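Hi support team,

I submitted a single chain yesterday and got back a structure, but I'm not sure I'm reading the token output correctly. Could someone confirm the output below corresponds to the sequence I sent? I've pasted both exactly as they appear in my results page.

Thanks,
R.
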Amino acid sequence: MPKDLIVVGASAGGIEALRTLVSGLPKEFNASVFIVLHSAPQSPQILDTILERVGPLPVTTAVDGERIRQGRIYVAPPDRHLIIEPGVVRVTRGPRENRFRPAIDPLFRSAAQVYGPRVIGVILTGGLDDGVAGLWAVKQLGGTAIVQDPDEALFDSMPRNALQFVRADYRLPIVEVAPRLVELTRQASKEGAYKVPEHVEIEVKIAKEDPSLKAGVMKLGDPSIYTCPECHGVLLQMKEENRIRFRCHAGHAFSIDSLIAAVNDGVEESLWSAVRSLEEKILLMRHLAEHVRGSGNGANAEQFLKVAREAEGQANLVRRAVTRDKERVPVQGDTKAP
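Hi R., thanks for writing in. Yes, this is the structure output for that exact sequence:
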């Protein structure tokens, strides 16, 4: 069988990288291409238009249930996972993975489950490490892994993490990715059957919106002491070779890097909430001081002002804690961290 199904994941800096890749694919291309670019839920649905302008292949935003056609590029819509089934595209609102929907891992994982050695996985520029687990699944099931050279990527964390944790077949500058894809699609895929691991089947079911408990989420790992930043449920700790991941019983999934980022965001949100509460207290105490002073009670007014000054000092301390420059938390594969 040919290598005729290509899955591509990109994040920060991804539009220009995708433009370069798509522009290098020929009009007669005997493969289907599926793309996930991290985006906000409210993002306009324009990536297909951007990419169709630069290359000869038709580009469409994926529609749930449509048939897969060769020589066509499918783009994940905002706030939906892009999933592959036999001959069919699925678009779902399964739980966020690594804080994103669409996420790269569900696309790669589902393609590997269905098409195994026929799959080529491509990781491009981006932050953190979404796509690493999915690319690992592609390799485990006989597929081919291509990673953009992180030294030239606009954001190097995602490709660098992929190279650290997955035995990639090719590390390429972006201008060489399309020619290599053309070459690979003219080759036969590896012979032999590959057994799909149970955890891959479970995680694909979850991405397809199956109830997580019914899908078997509790089989994925042992309960940890950590809680899910999304829903505050207990996180199960999973291990793939030397890499740890987490998934809660509701289905949200995190790498170590994305979990750290989510916890940092939660801490910052809590600190800003504390600043807001203290500033409300300052306003209330000053208002009460003015009120009682107008009634001729200067002593009580001074007491209210004293409380206001104390709250102002506390607010300044918390504000400095949340706004001051901090050492960046090192993440896996981040050679720029201290």
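A quick pointer for reading it: The chain has three domains: 5-185, 211-251, 258-323. Let us know if anything else looks off.

Best,
Support desk
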